[in-house]
Every structure is written in C-alpha cells, then in structure tokens.
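job 3f2a | input accepted
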Amino acid sequence: MRSIEARGLTKEFKVYQSRSGLTGAFRDLFNRQYRTIRAVNGIDLTIEPGEIVGYIGENGAGKSTTIKMLTGILEPTGGCLRVNGYDPHREREEFVRTIGVVFGQRSQLWWDIAVKESFRLLKKLYRLSGEGYRQHLDRLVEVLEIGPFLDQPVRKLSLGQRMRCELAAALLHQPRLLFLDEPTIGLDVLVKENIRRFLKQVNAEYGTTILLTTHDLSDIEALCSRVVMLDKGNIIYDGDLERLRTQWGDGRRLILELKEEVPSFVLNEKTRGLSVKWEGEGTRYTARLEKGTTVSDVLSRLVPAVAVQELKIEEATTEDIVRRIYREGAAHA
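job 3f2a | predicted structure (333 res):
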C-alpha cells in the first residue's frame, strides 16, 4: 500500500471581489462578485512507504493547500486521493491515527502546562497502551534530549527546545507518515543538525515516510533523495536531486586568477572546440563548463599558454538551480 497516491488532485477557491467606491460597496451588499482561483491544478503524486520526499515551491505555489488536502483539513475539489489507504477527509478519525504533523509556526502542545502533561493528553487522544507508550516515549526523550524540559511549560521553552518536543509529540503514536512544514525555521545550525539526524534515524529504524515542506534547501539536501517542485499549482519537477543538478545545473565554474593580464580572445582561442563560456577580463576570469567538458580539458589547453596563479572550482548549488528554474518558469522532468 502506497503512503500517498493522488490522481488529478485539484483544489479551487471562490474569492470575493469587491468593487471600488461607495457605489461599488453598496452594490456588493446585494450582488457580490466572485472569481475562482485554482490553487492546485490536477496534480499526480505517488509516495512509497519509507521515502523522504522534499516538497518545495515559492510562496503561493500551492504547497500548503496540498498538505491540507493530504492531512484531511481541506476536501479536494476534484481528483482521487488515498493516504495510508484512507480518504483523508471522509475517514478522518481513523486516518489521523496513522499520521504525524509538525508545523514550524504552530504548536500542538498546550501552552501553559508542562510538556509531559501534553504528552499524557496526546496519549489519551490516541488511545495508546501504557507500557508501549512508556517505552516509546523514553526512546524519544533520549534521542531528542528533551528530558530536562518535560516539567517546564511550553511557553518557557526556546524555539529549538519546543521544536524537539513537537517532534516527540508528533511521533508518540508511531505514525506511518510524518508531515513536516518548515520544521527548522528560525533554528540555529546546531539544532538543525540534531533534528536532521533524528529524522534520518526515525526513517531508518521505523520506516516512517516523511514529506518535508521547506524553503531551506539545505534541509532538502541533508534529508531527501527525491524532490517534488510545485509552481502555480502544477508539479514541474518530480525526481531525484542528482537528476535535477544534471538537467538544470549550469555545470562547473572554473575561477582563474592569472599572474598577468591576458586578453579574453586568447582564452577563447586556446579553448576552441570545448563547451566553455568565458567571463571576466584582465587577470580574473570565470569559465562556465557545459556538458561534455571537464576541468582537465580546459587546464590542459591553458596551462602551457598562460600563467595561472590561483584556481577554484565551484559547483552549482541546489539553491542556484531552483532559483534558475523559477526564473525560467518551468522545468522539464
């Protein structure tokens, strides 16, 4: 059974349009005008058990709307959707026992009571057995290092401490599928690293499927082997990170510092026949290497002809690639 299977998943909203001026406001009292916005446009999405998938897109791309449909908060306008074998909206009571959700800017813990009391309330809600609950909770407390916080009210915790407690709360009932929406937002580098390590451990030990929505692409690079990219309600890329880099990367950049000034036409002449584009002037140049051309190809032509003082090789980052895709408006999967 697949963790998520969506076919033609669509969500439309009716948005009220107000008319300008006093006359327009008066007319709106009796005859309101609406327009339809399609936030998610017939997407197909399949996620297998045990996968860690990054779900990314610009603000307004439809990510949050998709997550709300997948978690049963919103009912789709069209299409078919099964999550852990359930219809999330119509079989909500049984379905929510199979998922965990962490929203970086919202809390599922009670603000004014001790963390351990929140855990006890969640235990009752999920109808967990005493011994199984205790063993699993002890494991979460140990791995997430939240023991010192259990007796403190949530309002007195730092953001990093609260996020670790939120993760524990989401995993108390050992869900098969975990939704993470900006789980590391606002956290320092060390806390981010600890949370990423914990999520990898949960995935490896329990086979928990994870769907991660974030603007921090370092989270994607650290956790996900697959990324799904959304733009204006459409999936524009669905595949592994390596293929994304291969298809949309600018290739390597070779940055050269020469011992003396060399005209650009000399470099172009020496690398004629290679797929390389030169930028710069004087003593500093950047060579953009395209497919089929290696650093050694370029250097074997240049070193006998020009004096190289320093060189640096740069790879296009995932952030550079994603920025380029959105700038061009579409991707070819």
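job 3f2a | The chain has a mean pLDDT of 86.
job 3f2a | closed
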